[in-house]
């Protein structure tokens, strides 16, 4: 019985705060006149708008659908990340979709199903009862029991005065300091180790896959992993995945991705090589051409870069990126005209110089040379020569 | 898969055709099945590993289900959770299966070694172990490294390092952990998502571990019920789906912070958690959705099973835009 009484007491205590339950309005301390169209439209405080929206939705102050909508719209404007704006929707059934969407989804799916069944057959034919794996079975070690709590065994009880007399706070503090120092060192060492580990990790040799389907599968997975690393800006890891992917199957896509990763890692020569390989597979790959341009520009081979970007424009004149790039490169190329030109420089003797002068030809005297030499300056003639190749 | 009213366990195999789902085969066994995975099997073998209410781990060849390819009975109670690793790809260690059971133990199996687990993590002797509800493999980026994450009914999440054979990290998240998954198994561990009772989900950045602070994490409230499972999209590890007890599905995206690693005053680095944004929240059923899986080959294709005894195939569009 007594236990019952105690429980009852507890219950009533728990219920008490409920009795004094305030409306949301007073809980959030928002004046009533803030529940107003004008105020809400001008309000810029996301948190306050959230509160107002909650009050309006609760219906405690009455039901105002228009005002609630206004508050919701304003909240979406001011504080789009608000959790209150998260809405539930019903999953669309096949019947609800409009015809175009349905058609595109079903055709996409059937095409994929066809290809996957083909792969499936190939895999099924090669089914083996053996379970092959290159790595060894893990050696069984006696697992340590889980150490749940490591309590301090030498806790001195508060009434144990004798022990407390022996207790020296200074040495204890020193101990703690030393412990912390140790911890710090350990952490730093571990960090170093981790870094080294990352550097030397992955000496993976991908074995030859028995089926084409498997190789394709792995190549695709590795590419996806690479893309993820790339997005997270872990370029070293991305490169590793793309390498694996390319090792399994070479495709324009994974080579292209490796090229851009090389660019990010500032290994421009390798990027150019990758792009060239893509262009062998697919000579009209715009991305590869653009990436090649970018890499060549970083290598300061402006003419080659310009050539490659022009190829890209030729394939797709509407490529805005290519146009921008071409404009930039035009400024960097030695001769700013669209037609590349070559300068011919010839040394001439004094007599010829006089003759040319008479002919009113453009003659440049190299100043540096004249300053250094005590001898008479050599004169050079500069011809403007038009290259035979036409790039435009 | 599941149980029939007569106490038998049943597995049904469906295949997707142009028109819809088509039932291929089914097989019944003595005990209810609780969990299963294909992940420790190669593309060609496609062996299904199952855990049942009798504590049995069985591996089945789906074309010949009379006797299992592999069987152990080391767990004394129901196997709640199962996960597999490196069946499909080489270069990340041996194919292994991990099981977590109500008896509180977590065991790792290699199908080439009969009867004995290759590693086990048991509760402290004398204590009754906490019910292990979720297990997941991760960090298998080369042949040696590998960790297991295990979630318990008291809210503990433990990270077991299989190379060192020791507990690497432990954290209590207040509510029982129902679902666990690393964003990828075969990379250096990056993110771990844990879903719990009481509609909470935790996303840990497990790249950098600080000796005192541990891992950085971000937490979210969703579904207004137990969050049963979490599954990362195979084509993009930053996107994952959580399934709720009220039949709802939430699609999330993890956004990295500007700088993932910072240094503290002692020059030890610690992780910085990013943000989670909800891409889609939708209801599929009025019963809890307990099973969910993405298709590895086709982006956006997924399958879900719920307590209303229906299997649904979903297509999520526009995932590539994220």
Task: Give the secondary structure arrangement, pairings included.
The complex is a heterodimer of chains A (392) and B (322).
Chain A: H1 2-19, H2 24-28, H3 37-42, H4 46-58, H5 65-78, E1 89-90, H6 99-125, H7 161-166, H8 169-200, H9 212-231, H10 235-248, H11 252-264, H12 268-281, H13 286-298, H14 302-315, H15 320-332, E2 341-348, H16 350-359, E3 363-365, H17 367-372, E4 379-386
Chain B: E1 2-3, E2 9-16, E3 21-29, E4 33-37, E5 47-52, E6 57-61, E7 70-72, E8 79-85, E9 96-101, E10 106-109, E11 119-121, E12 132-138, E13 147-152, E14 156-161, E15 166-172, E16 177-182, E17 191-196, E18 200-210, E19 214-221, E20 227-233, E21 236-244, E22 248-255, E23 261-263, E24 269-271, E25 275-283, E26 289-294, E27 301-306, E28 311-315
Antiparallel strand pairs in B: 1-2, 2-3, 4-5, 5-6, 6-7, 8-9, 9-10, 10-11, 12-13, 13-14, 14-15, 16-17, 17-18, 18-19, 20-21, 21-22, 22-25, 23-24, 26-27, 27-28
